[in-house]
Amino acid sequence: MLELIKVFDQVVESGNFSQAGKVLNMAPSSVARNIDTLESKIKATLFKRSTRQLVLTEEGQYFYQQSTKILQDSDRLLAEMRGNQGDPEGSLRISVFESFGNLCLAPLIPEFLERYPKIHVELELNNSVVDLNSENIDIAIRIGTLQDSRLKARHLLTNYTSLVAAPSYIKKHTSIKKPEDLQDHNCLLISHERQRNYWYLRKNTASKKVLVTGNLISKGGSPLLHAALKGSGVLLLSNWMIKPYLDSGELSELLPDWTSMYSEQGSGEIFAIYKNAQYPRPHIRAFIDFLVEKMEPMKRVSTLR
């Protein structure tokens, strides 16, 4: 019965038999038969079915609410029992945006695997938004606020940003003494899929919104960083990406008295996002706890000041 409930729960989260089948590694027809069997056992219709979509019936909605609690209690019990028997184990699929994955996460994975040798990690570097339920991702690491109420988030880092350029660029171009001067420079831009790009700067009670343009736009920060190091333009980027180059002198900070941001509210927060279970599976919990532990020193780096 519990396995049938798990199939039902995945169908609700995925939205259809086909997507649920991909997550569960089952044929859609097998998923449908499992739902038929469950409906027969509880003598209730759980879905209104059509060729285009599945919609929960009133009984289905009630059953989903109650069955979720059953699955959470089951996971908690298994976690407790496995915790008594040994280390966390299982496969862990992690999706992380490219620059953070390369620079911050990848160097930590060997230590995590040494600490938890029974866990198998599959890492995906992806700047696109992923659906944890339909794409069978256990943890996604992203910048931004949580939008899906079916998910939970653990804060890792505030994404402080700074304005920088290579000494070679600074030497060749007019000086930047105030925010408005940025309009006369080639700015290397993170793609926000909008026609105009603005950078926001704040100093004490003064705030500036500056329209910036440039000849290179990228969804990820790495191409922009490489271009800035070659002297191609001015860059607004996360401190955890640029600090080594500031320390080495390959980049110089511009307008250091100003706080530079991607929006009026700041440059965002970095979260580990996972499925909304009261008791996450032990290997998921182990990785998130490990990540929070390792991010603590980076919180000091991220401010620069």
TrEMBL record:
Domain HTH lysR-type: 1-57
Signal peptide bounds: none
Pfam family name, one: LysR_substrate
Keywords: DNA-binding, Transcription, Transcription regulation
Annotated SUPFAM superfamilies: Periplasmic binding protein-like II, Winged helix' DNA-binding domain
Alphabetical list of PANTHER family matching this protein: HTH-TYPE TRANSCRIPTIONAL ACTIVATOR TTDR-RELATED, HTH-TYPE TRANSCRIPTIONAL REGULATOR
Family label: Belongs to the LysR transcriptional regulatory family.
Name of the featured protein: LysR family transcriptional regulator
Organism: Vibrio gallaecicus
